[in-house]
Amino acid sequence: MASPTVSAPAPASAPAESLSPSEAVLTSVFESAARLNLDAEVIDLLRTPWREMRAQLPVRMDDRRLQIFEGYRVQHNGARGPYKGGVRFHPKADIDEVRALAMLMTYKCALMDLPFGGAKGGVMCDPTRMSETELNRLTRTYTQHIAMLLGVARDIPAPDLGTNAQTMAWMMDAFGQLNGHTPGVVTGKPVELGGSFGRDQATGRGVAVCMREYARLEGVDPRDIRIAVQGYGNVGSWTCRVASEMGFTVVGVSDVKGGIAQPEGIQVGALDRWVGVAGSVAGFEGAHPITNEQLLEIECDYLVPAALGEVITAANAERIHARAVVEAANHPVTPAADAILGRRKIAVLPDIAMNAGGVTVSYFEWTQNIQQFRWQLDRVLQELELRMVGAFGELMARSGRDGTRPRQAAFDIGVERVARAIKLRGFV
Ligand code: GLU
Q1: Cβ–Cβ < 8 Å for 219, 405
Q2: Rg for the chain (alpha carbons), in Å?
Q3: Which fold has domain 202-354?
Q4: Pocket of ligand 1, candidates 76, 80, 88, 160: which has the most ligand atoms within 8 Å of its Cβ, to mutate?
Q5: pTM score, whole prediction
């Protein structure tokens, strides 16, 4: 049985490739606003973030040079609750990228029905070229600069690309020095400092759960589904681990240093041991070497971009060989590519649903911190499963009902909830 949405109509005209990341997100928001008949004042509120902060971050590097970084915190919309969203350390984390990611968080939290608004932070830097002590100093400087925006009931950062549990420990500590010990001010912390069990695997597990649900809608057994995953960081590696436990066959993976393909299936446990030693998937014994670009064009059933944004563009969308693209990364498909994939009847399962497992367990971590009560891993995974299956099912049902593609259905649900909260609060 084919899912009704796989053959949903493509948009009539293809958007230009020159849209900035935030303009690209807005195309989906405006489409939903038009379908939902939202009032113009609500649309105006959603068009730009509520608050954007840019900070100069001077850091003394190990060689005694002073390097000045630029950092941001963007709070897009807080109608549904405190601002929530990760902090990205990446050379391309400029203000528009962070703004786009903050907008995605607003609708992601609404789609998952979490009591949060949307935010994102970023520092333009290359963490792979910085020492631990430099990263510690940069994180503290950044936290001190944005501390007046943060709080358990105000804005709660989390990890994203280039940051991790250690970064959150430094952020919690820097915030605590100013305001007193406040574990609930960041999520994704180490378990020893009040982090939640299961937060590290949450995003990848959520991706795998949604893929299993999509396979069920298609009427195909996961054992007959080949997946290829771009990125073997936190999200990509956990997606591979959980998906292979569910029976999916991983036929290709890649990371910044290169990729590997094995049509008969990669043993994920052995690959993990190899990555532990070699620091990359590249060179894994028995697999063919491929490039990151080739990974995207590999013969597979579900293609899972799980690293950077804007990797599937008008330049390669014609050469995707999967029947579904699973957006584990944020914004990996440009609007122009999305239109091409739609025309080619390739389903695109949207980021705001597929990678929402991370912020969902962040929500569990926040509630555990507030209650000062720790949940066991089983409970975290069970609640995550329930929320992912529920939200994914809801968006696919909406997509089937309205004849819209899954991204549009996900935005329809998210935008509708945010607009309702705006009205109820009396903002407009
Ligand atoms: N950075 C993750 C995301 O993009 C998680 C955010 C969070 O946990 O607040 O969804």
Answers
A1: no
A2: 21
A3: Rossmann fold (3.40.50)
A4: 160
A5: 0.94
